[in-house]
Amino acid sequence: MKRQQIRKRTLQLGLLLILLLTGMSCQQAMANNETFYVATNGSDANPGTEAAPWRTIQHAANTMGPGDTALIRGGIYEEAVTINVSGSENNVITFQSYPGETAVLDGTPFSSPDGDIGLQIVNQSYVTIQGLEIRNYKTTIPNAVPMG
């Protein structure tokens, strides 16, 4: 009788372990971990590949999900960017300059007295910004730097 209980318990634990491992791999599979490309000569109608990049960083922000990376080619991007998606602990969303190049997020054409332009990440987490130069965003709020 004890052997049957031990076998039953072992089988239950084995099945539980299989379910846990399967659940983890399904969660990891949900993250695409894709690399997308943005370039000043791209188009947001493109698929975001290296050969056919997107035009705007905002389009990348609107399209990407956990685990994805946007490699942004060198050049000046005159836009305000709001990131409305979070990554996760194991699937960070990354926006970075293309290796060996510097992407510049430039606010010269914008004017916002309350400073609500620039690069905004509001109530999101696990988002990395790397190697971008952010410049020329202005506000009338004393001692404030409108970067988001």
What does this structure look like?
This protein has 148 residues and is an alpha/beta fold. The protein has two domains: 1-30; 32-135, no CATH class. Helix content is 24%, strand content 22%. The chain is built from two helices and nine strands; from the N terminus they run αβαββββββββ. It has helices at 2-30, 57-63; strands at residues 35-38, 69-72, 75-77, 81-83, 93-97, 103-106, 119-121, 127-130, 133-135. The strands form three sheets. Strands 1-2-5-8 form a four-stranded parallel β-sheet, with no helix packed on it. Strands 3-6-9 form a three-stranded parallel β-sheet, with no helix packed on it. Strand 1 (35-38), helix 2 (57-63) and strand 2 (69-72) form a beta-alpha-beta unit. The longest helix has 29 residues, at 2-30. The radius of gyration is 22 Å and the shape is elongated.
Supply the key terms.
148 residues; alpha/beta; four-stranded parallel sheet; three-stranded parallel sheet
Whole-number radius of gyration?
A: 22 Å
Largest sheet: 4 strands, parallel
End-to-end gap: 66 Å
Shape: elongated
Average pLDDT level: 83
Low-confidence stretches: 24-29
Helix segment tally: 2
Task: Give the tally of β-strands.
Answer: 9
Helix content: 10-25%
Spatially, the strands of the biggest sheet line up as 1-2-5-8
